[in-house]
Write a structure and sequence with these properties.
The chain has about 325 residues and is an alpha+beta fold. The chain folds into 2 domains: about 5-135, 60s Ribosomal Protein L30, Chain: A, CATH 3.30.1330; about 150-295, PurM-like C-terminal domain (Phosphoribosyl-aminoimidazole Synthetase, Chain A, domain 2, Alpha-Beta Complex), CATH 3.90.650. It contains 9 helices and 10 strands. The protein has helices spanning about 5-10, 60-75, 95-110, 160-170, 175-185, 190-195, 210-220, 235-245, 250-255, and strands spanning about 40-50, 80-90, 115-125, 125-135, 150-155, 200-205, 225-230, 260-265, 280-290, 295. Strands 6-8-5-9-7-10 form a 6-stranded mixed β-sheet, with helices on both faces. A 4-stranded mixed β-sheet has the order 1-4-2-3, with helices on one face. The termini are far apart. The model has no long low-confidence stretch (mean pLDDT about 95). One of its GO terms (molecular function) is thiamine-phosphate kinase activity.
């Protein structure tokens, strides 16, 4: 199979069919029709075997996650997903692997109205880079810089499930189906992100851990925050681990949650209940303060020492 065959057979028609793509896969560039009343939101993520996923990860799950992490970035700014490009580096052409990867990527793309419009394939260590493009009305994008003292700090879903799955896999244990799904097939909160446009004052997606990612909001907004650890939403298995060990680093710093963390004025708290769905709760976990820094208070009133805030590729 040649590179051209690979693109034609697995990726040329992947995802939704959109009328705003005059020219997609197969030419030197894609041509995209951006509506005059929208701004373009763009993000790119790279996943590397042995760093972001185990080399023997299910290819369908990898295809899903490779796009999900980018869609989560769009969700954090309240953008509507539209297009994606893919740069795929493969050690060899494996039709079974490619079929599974394309299914996982294509199913999630179609579910969110995303069309794959271009990219590149090459030979080398297994690496996946996907750039996502979304649309948002001018002035409606939610950035990290809008949090104000008195705002509530909120998160979607539950925290620490993916981190617990990773811990168990690293220890040679088999995670439950629920935990494995949270690690390998995160659900980007695209609908919630769009509903938060106009309600959230600042927002970020949780990829590297709550403490570190919330820290980006605090730095960009020039504020601090107080969190109540007892309020953190935990899944049943994560709650058991925290209750038995007192290890709050699991929900605070393990990463890979791909939930949304956002702030909103306290006067609008009543509007939060309308945002929750049966499979995605919205929880108030703290408050923005004028005093800088992040303080995490344990149920007994003690402050939890934040010696690790989240994942960093280049941290010592």
């Amino acid at each position: 199979m040649s590179e051209r065959d690979l693109i034609r057979d697995y990726f040329a028609a992947l995802g939704a069919r959109r009328a705003d793509v005059p020219c997609g896969v197969g030419d030197d560039c894609a041509l995209l029709a951006v509506p005059p009343d929208r701004q373009l939101a763009v993000s790119i993520d790279t996943l590397v075997a042995g760093v972001h996923f185990f080399a023997d990860c299910d290819p369908q799950a990898l295809g899903h996650k490779s796009l999900a992490v980018g869609l989560s970035d769009l969700a954090s700014m309240g953008a509507e997903p539209a297009w994606a490009t893919l740069a795929l580096t493969l050690p060899e052409i494996d039709p079974d692997w490619l079929g599974g990867f394309a299914r996982g990527l294509g199913d999630l793309a179609a579910a969110h109205g995303v069309q794959l419009v271009g990219g590149d394939t090459t030979r080398g260590p297994l690496t996946v880079s996907i750039q996502v493009h979304g649309l948002v009305a001018p002035g409606q994008a939610v950035t990290r810089a809008g949090a104000r003292p008195g705002d509530l700090v909120c998160v979607s879903g539950t925290l620490g499930d993916a981190g617990l799955a990773l811990r168990q896999l690293a220890a040679g244990k088999a995670p439950s189906a629920t935990l494995r799904r949270r690690l390998e097939r995160p659900e980007p909160r695209v609908g919630l992100g769009r509903r938060l446009a106009g309600l959230a004052s600042a927002m970020i997606d949780l990829s590297d851990g709550l403490a570190g990612d919330l820290g980006h909001i605090l730095a960009a907004s020039g504020v601090g925050a107080d969190l109540e650890l007892a309020a953190l939403p935990l899944g049943p298995e994560g709650a058991t681990v925290v209750a038995e060990t007192g290890d709050w680093a699991l929900p605070l710093a393990s990463g890979d949650d791909y939930e949304l963390c956002f702030t909103t004025p306290a006067a609008r708290r009543a509007e939060l209940s309308a945002l929750a769905t049966p499979d995605c709760a919205v929880t108030v976990i703290g408050q923005i303060t004028a005093a800088p820094g992040l303080r995490c208070r344990e149920p007994n009133g003690d402050l939890w020492p934040l010696d690790r805030s989240g994942y960093d590729h280049f941290s010592t």
